[in-house]
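Section 4.2 – Deliverable D4.2 (structural model, holo form)

The reporting period included a commitment to supply a predicted holo structure for the target in complex with 6R9. Inputs used:
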Amino acid sequence: MSAPSSDAIFPVPASWQRRAWFDNAAYRRDYQRSMHDPQRFWAEQAEHLDWFHHPTRIRDVSYGPEDIHIRWFEDGVLNASVNCLDRHLLERARKAAIVWEGDDPAESRTLSYAELHAEVCRLANGLKSLGICKGDRVTVYLPMVPEAAVAMLACARIGAMHSVVFAGFSAESLAGRIRDCDAKLLITADEGMRGGRRFALKANADEALKRCPSVQACVVLRRTGGEVAWLDGRDRWYHELVDHQASNCEPETMNAEDPLFVLYTSGSTGKPKGVLHTTAGYLLAASLTHRYVLDYHDEDVFWCTADIGWVTGHSYIVYGPLANGATTVMFEGVPTWPDASRFWQVIDKHRVSIFYTAPTAIRALIRQGDAPVRATSRKSLRLLGSVGEPINPEAWLWYYNVVGEQRCPIVDTWWQTETGASVIAPLPGAIATKPGSATLPFFGVEPVIVDEDGRVLEGECEGRLCLRDGGPGMLRTLYRDHDRFVQTYFSACPGLYFTGDGARRDKDGYFWITGRVDDVINVSGHRLGTAEVESALVAHPEVAEAAVVGYPHPVKGQGIYAYVTLKANTQPSDELRNALGQWVRKEIGPIAAPDQIQWASSLPKTRSGKIMRRVLRKIAAGDTTDLGDTSTLADATMVESLIDGRRTIA
Ligand code: 6R9
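Output (structure tokens):
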């Protein structure tokens, strides 16, 4: 994907310079301080958290090349749930913590800070009664209901690590993630609701748990009341577990570097990576960026539309907003149901002032025209955010002109599961924006661009995006796989963290993210490894070989394009094409289903047997004027037949 670009500059509105947390001079001053005197800068920032024991050792970070370690606030002691709940009880006990908007517009629910605290304590006590202790792993496979946040915070309260698995993932994907971390407990629901339809969760959980001997208990939330199978001794209803528990639970004392959660994300190989975040650094990064990038103030109603199953939901539905004592909106449904006005109706209904969504949702709504937006008021809105993939200038401008009526600045926030929180993003009172650019780094973050050989480039340039420092929110390791952590992130450019993204820096020092440069596809803001989809395809009995690449897609950003070679006696057919789509849905989940499947008699390989993805990407994109160097291909003639095959697809 080439870098989106637009020359337009949107200056900071005068009213924002006065009321926001930082103006331009203050941003520049504090950014320099964070670079030149990080110990002092971060010691001050750490005071945003509530500690049982304040840290004196602030920062001990080395990105190699020899020793690679990331430690922040090492001797500090705290509890994340206390920071998100208890410390607000004095002043905000009755303030809405979570405003939940159901899939059905008639359903909503508000939990005050006092109520959320009590709910979290009850579940925490329930988990303890099931034998869950500090350091244990708990997998959370829940739809977008308040209990998902309650489950995360209850784990944090007792020092158990949560591993949230997106409810759209299959039994197979769930099992893999449970097994990788040997979770002791699974929290799920009977079913979920989305777009007026129910989807199974407990049935998937049952299927997954057949292969997960580590799981001793399965706690089931009743969401729809749908029929579920039951395994006595293992399965427990959520409401029965929490009903008689005390609404107070002594928080576990956690060291700053004790693990808070693991979250699986796709990499270049078939096996998802267990990104590990620890307690203080992550919480501080999430809450500071929520305050400064998303400009949170006390009176705001904040809505992040992400799912709790992704890092954006972790940092900007749960930890960031709640650590700041915010009202956070949680939405169970989809942007286009019951109609294409839904997002804007929810904004009016709950008087949302800060709205944070993904480009794919914006592009899907652009297709519905302006009328569904104009039918609503959106008067409460004052800031718009974007995350998950590069936002094309057209989508940016529509978001700005139509949704925000030119009144609301847009913050395009670049970050990753690994960085924990936004790392390149404008502070809206300080930094003029350009449509399509994530602009400048957050405090403590030093992005660099390197060329193919790992040499650092200066000034205006384009190349691979690395970080010399990513701040306190960075992942600490990959769970139980430190070698893969070192290999994946620190081997491409010694001494630097490699993001997997490409980027360009313009004459003003602004960063423009150009998309992944590794074998990861970004489908509707969701990361998928090509290898994951390939291994699902080749697991099908009729498939001999498969190669998967991303290609430009008008709504999803990138679509999934699969080249499939069938077994010798199998004939290609539309039925088989559909069956393979269904198969991948079942193996991984609906988000991984290929958008296009092209039959291929063979795949272009180098003489050493490596699939030449570069060529396949070009063919999928319909860009075959210059395929680059194909001289190392074992059989160059087959490229022509793939190009012919592509024509029959589009
Ligand atoms: C937060 C999140 C990370 C990948 C990342 C990049 C892409 C995210 C972006 C963006 C351009 C932005 N990405 N935000 N690209 N502009 N504002 O999405 O985490 O799911 O781990 O994905 O998403 O490619 O490397 P995650």
